[in-house]
Here is the input.
Amino acid sequence: MPLIDLPLFWLIIVDAMAWMVLHLSISFAAQRIPIDWFVRNKRWFRSFSWEKEGRIWQQLFRVKRWKGYIPDGTLFISNGYNKSKLHGADSMSLYDFLLESRRAEWVHWLTIFPSILFFLWNPIWAAWLNVVYAILFNVPLIVVQRFNRPRLERLLKTSR
Here is the structure.
């Protein structure tokens, strides 16, 4: 039983507002994490052998086909990393992009976890719907980062 009993209309409004606040808060907070943190904690973002350097994501989900339709995060977070900063194969730009891909993956993992809060004010079915939303919204964005990053790492190795 939820702590608050809201009519469906208000439940939808509260859930939408909660997600907006959560998405923006987590994104803004992640922008405050010094980029050195993503350098020091690169092991958390390494590719696993079963990912075949990101190729598994293309095989399973055809990432190249749909990743271009995902809006750039800088539409919502103005101080985020804009891919237009990439200047060709400049190794410094590629390295910055690599680090920002770690930040992006981190943000999307963190955004899934607060979905358990929705059990506080939603009926069980609606709370689970919010968990599903969190997974369906964030996992594709995580997959894109995990697909792109090994390619960036290979480019960086060859550009040195």
In short: Residues 8-159 form one domain. The longest helix spans residues 124-159. The chain has one domain: 8-159. The two ends are 59 Å apart (CA to CA).
